[in-house]
Amino acid sequence: DAKTTQPNSMESNEEEPVHLPCNHSTISGTDYIHWYRQLPSQGPEYVIHGLTSNVNNRMASLAIAEDRKSSTLILHRATLRDAAVYYCILRAANTGNQFYFGTGTSLTVIP
Amino acid sequence: DTGVSQDPRHKITKRGQNVTFRCDPISEHNRLYWYRQTLGQGPEFLTYFQNEAQLEKSRLLSDRFSAERPKGSFSTLEIQRTEQGDSAMYLCAGGRGRETYGYTFGSGTRLTVV
Questions:
Q1: By the CB < 8 Å criterion, does B104 face chain A?
Q2: Model pLDDT for residues B68-94, shown as the tens digit of each residue
Q3: Is B12 helix (H, G, I), strand (E, B) or coil?
Q4: Cα B59 → chain centroid
């Protein structure tokens, strides 16, 4: 199982940017980096993914280190609805493509 | 509406009973995954299907668990002779089978074994 390491919890003030880090030092060349988040009592929700280049979408930005051993999910302006557990996951490209969750980072947004 | 429906949302059963959960992905989801999640933990992979073929099963999937996906559409997960340790959220996810896409999860079925 590809491993990722994330802080257990983080806090952010509302309307400020949030940078959620993830370390994946054993990443292989074909692994995609995916981020999901899970709100209470809901299933995980896809946020963003990337391979080598930084990515932006309407929800967030993903910054990937040049050596790909770490990445950062960026929420540009945190809202109370962003309070969730954020999972950083490696997804192998040439296997069954199932992916393995860690325990994630629990983000608290302070009003 | 996430596009993946799970039924029921909640299930309470007595130990030793059998339970069955259903997952309905959208038609584009040729891949379907089952995960289990206990309190405070991330989801754990159980099994996945590509169309109707069950391609992988986790060692977590004991012989009391069985999953099917007839005709490559909806899927069912059955647990026989339930135990208290089976109490968890059971999540289903659908995907298009390519790493360039994310997966869509349902809201899960919360199982409580009493």
A1: yes
A2: 999 889 999 999 999 999 999 999 999
A3: strand
A4: 15
